[in-house]
Amino acid sequence: MTAIQPPRPRTYELPGNYYTDLDVYRRELQTIWRSTWQWVGRLEDLTNPGDYLATVLGEEPIFVVRGGDGELLAMHNVCPHRGARLLPQKQGSCKFLQCPYHAWTFDLSGKLLAVAQPGWFPELDKSAVRLAGAQVDSWGGFVFVNPDPEGECLAEYLAGVPDYLNQYGQRWEDLRQIAHFTREEPINWKFQIENFVEDYHFATVHAETLTPLYDVQRIGTIPAGRHINIPVPYAPNCPPKDPQRRRWEAGGVSYQGFIFPNITYGTSAHTVFFSRYIPVNPTVTRFEAFIYQTPAQHAAEPYIGEAGPSKVGQEDTDVCTLLQEGVRSRAYQISHLAEEHELGISHFYNTVRAYLG
């Protein structure tokens, strides 16, 4: 009997093992997460000298701190003595940085100030020791970090995204966080991105939640560098249900999109959401969603949150779980992609392939 051969991937397809394989996941950590700009917080989180945000980008522990001169600085959260992590993974404030292992002390710019038992290091030149730097910059009040200190600047990396988002009728710098949700899901991070950047599933998965709200036939998918701009026109007629009626904007556009590698966002008349998908392992992702309003938006219509995951979010989680369950099959394949309404998927595939080589 002739063995059944699994279908060969088409040029636009990622093989099934890209969603389950530990070696692929490690390659992603080494290539994508070590050399891309990633969103870590807001400028209002870093108001005063010594204010810091500590996080992990892939496997890179990183912190951003407001320096004594007011400048934003980003450094690898690793002591150059023995490699211990300096700051806990949280938001806080400090006057200096001290390693919890051997008490080596650094100023806010990363320069070594003092070591415990200096006589035990007779040849140590303190002026030659400092924390390894990373890149930090901001757009619209959002703080981004690139672990690679030699990589391209943020403005070049973002390509046409800022011009696209500047069409929104609110100042991005004025946004303030009013809600935050986080959960872990048994899904590879790439499946969740792919689901966001296509709208072909709206009529099936979101028949009651999103389809009445938007003019699905006119949703656009516009590649912008590594990223994807997705202008979503509102439905021409007011949706019949009250929650959707409140979110509907006559003649308006929801400026939605994706910033590689892991940020999705969307606007409405009264709120903005930013979400990020953080890989925990090849088949688990931590999802974080942040809701923002400007003071004027909050005064006009305070945000009313849902108890637990949103219905739309649960709908997306359910279908992405089906993808994760099916990807291990020898029959897994992608036979076709809708040229316009799944364009974002093929663009995402090409970007991932470029990083993984």
UniProtKB/TrEMBL annotation:
Entry keyword Magnesium: no
UniProtKB keywords: 2Fe-2S, Iron, Iron-sulfur, Metal-binding, Oxidoreductase
GO terms of molecular function: 2 iron, 2 sulfur cluster binding; iron ion binding; monooxygenase activity; oxidoreductase activity, acting on paired donors, with incorporation or reduction of molecular oxygen
Rieske domain segment(s): 37-145
Swiss-Prot/TrEMBL cofactor(s): Fe cation
Keyword Mitochondrion: no
Protein name: Gll0957 protein
Lineage: Bacteria, Bacillati, Cyanobacteriota, Cyanophyceae, Gloeobacterales
